[in-house]
Amino acid sequence: MAKATSPDNRMIFNLYNSSLRANSIFSLLILIAITSSSICVPTSSFAALVQDSDSQDLGEQDEDPAEEDEAEEQEDDSDEPYQLSPNRRRRSQSKRNVEQYSKRANNFVALFQPVVESASKSVVQIYSGGRQLALGLIVDSDGLILTKASELKGELKCQLPNGKLLPAEVYGIHAQSDLAMLRVKAASLNVVQFATDPAPQIGQWVASPLPDNDPLVGIVSVNTREIPPSTPFIGISMTDLEDRDGVRITFIVSKSPADEAGLWVNDVITRIDSTDTTDIESLRETLGQYDPGERITLTIMRGDTEKKIKLTLAEKDKASPQNQRSNQQNSMGSKLSRRRKAFPDAFQHDSMLTARNCGGPVVNIDGKVIGINIARAGRVANYSLPVSTIEPILAELKTGNLAPEIVNKEAISKIDLELEELAERLGNIPNRVAEMERKLEAEQIRRDELSQIMNDLKERLKRQDEQLARQRKTLSGLNGELKQAEQVRKRLNEDRKLLSTGRR
In this structure, are residues 247 and 260 in contact, taking their beta carbons and an 8 Å threshold? Predict the structure, then answer.
């Protein structure tokens, strides 16, 4: 039996859809049997397989749970080698059947190999430092490649479909869609052909070609719509003041923008850029006008001192402790995309993408490229930009008017201004530092001199103490002799008096 060809794909996938909705192993077996030569079996064997499937379904429906539990208990008490009970064997076999006929089953994924074959010739892999960052799509035969912007970092290289690895430069960035244009020195490349069909609808099959691997298969789960941006995040808890305008910080999240910028608990925020902050509500309203990644200036009161502190807003979806735990569970062991919010239009599908699979194409069952995978947002949530959104952006990127230095001109100007303010604030500090170093050196020399003098004085003091000790000893001896002489003198005077009176 030959494998299904492209004209038959729609019928096959419709049948597969029907089988999934009916949850029928019987329908799945028929589908696999007519679409894959790798499992072709004689009619008699196929009939037996179907009959066995039917008997399994009926058998599970008619089983008595009490009898099943009793049989399992008897098995547990037996000294014989462990064997699955018939009931367990049937359940295990049913589970294997479901896994075998899922959209990740090898037989089913194989159906999509010819579907993605044409698009695969235009897919490149983007690397930095030997690590794959994303996929890209060739949009010009002379080396222009469309990819996901927010995953790019470091020195970029593109591996072409023929395996050649070439250095790449960022030719343009469309920030709103998170698309970037790379340029490599190459010619005669296979350019992707975008579909003219409308955006896919809920329930339609899609596939994402992967270089040197099986395609990822999924179903459109949400129609095209705007993906709103994430909320900007500072990383503080706060309370209103009772006696004046402003917001007092009561808690700072570790490693948050507030923590890294040097804010303290009890600091009072009075202004964001040029907008006064009277209370919590006004602070949130002002922050809502900014996007994550923007740099703002907070005016604060720290005690009686006014300070200005600059910080870069983070994404609440990524940075808040609660969302970090949620993202870890949602990623199921694989990283989510750096940017997974704020897209003008995107449809959602449930293919098992990873962050590094983004930037590549997604095709329908006719093999037509209907979009670009732009974000892995969750365990079964992947966003793709439709062709209707991509084409005008692609035309603008090709003009060269979206070069990084042009797109980021305002942000670069802000950084330059901040550097100028920093230089002005530093002022003559380098000269003052040099002067202070000279003074410190002189003071160190003076201290060493005083230390030497002190050591000499200590030595002299030691000798003086020794001399005092000797003199005290001599004085003590003289005092002893004097006392003894006084005693002799007293006795002699008494003897003389007695002799003078003739009385003893």
Answer: no
Q: DSSP labels for 39-65?
A: G---HHHHHHHHHHHHHHHHHHHH--H
pLDDT at 168 over 70: yes
- The whole-number pLDDT of residue 500 equals 85
Identify the CA nearest to 149 among candidates 415, 320, 403, 377: 403
Cα–Cα distance between 183 and 170 in angstroms, integer? 6
Q: CATH assignment of 116-228+342-414?
A: 2.40.10.120
Q: What is the pLDDT of residues 41-94, one digit of tens each?
A: 333 333 333 333 333 333 333 334 333 433 433 434 333 333 445 565 555 555
Closest CA to 265 of 255, 250, 277: 250
SS3 148: strand
**pTM tops 0.70:** no
Helix (H) or strand (E) holding 488: helix 429-501
Residue 310 confidence (pLDDT) above 70: yes
Q: Cα–chain-centroid distance for residue 153?
A: 14
As assigned by CATH, the class of the 232-319 domain is mainly beta
Of 20, 10, 187, 112, the closest CA to residue 361 belongs to: 112
* pLDDT bracket for residue 39 (50, 70, 90): very low
Query: Distance between CA atoms of 392 and 468, rounded to whole angstroms?
Result: 102
CA 146 – CA 136 distance, rounded (Å): 5
Long-range pairs, 36-41, Cβ under 8 A, ≥24: 36/3, 36/107, 36/110, 36/111, 37/1, 37/2, 37/3, 38/107, 38/110, 39/107, 40/1
Helix (H) or strand (E) holding 454: helix 429-501
Sort 34 into a burial class: Cβ within 10 Å, 0-12 / 13-18 / 19+: middle
Q: Which two tokens stand for residue 110?
A: 């194989």
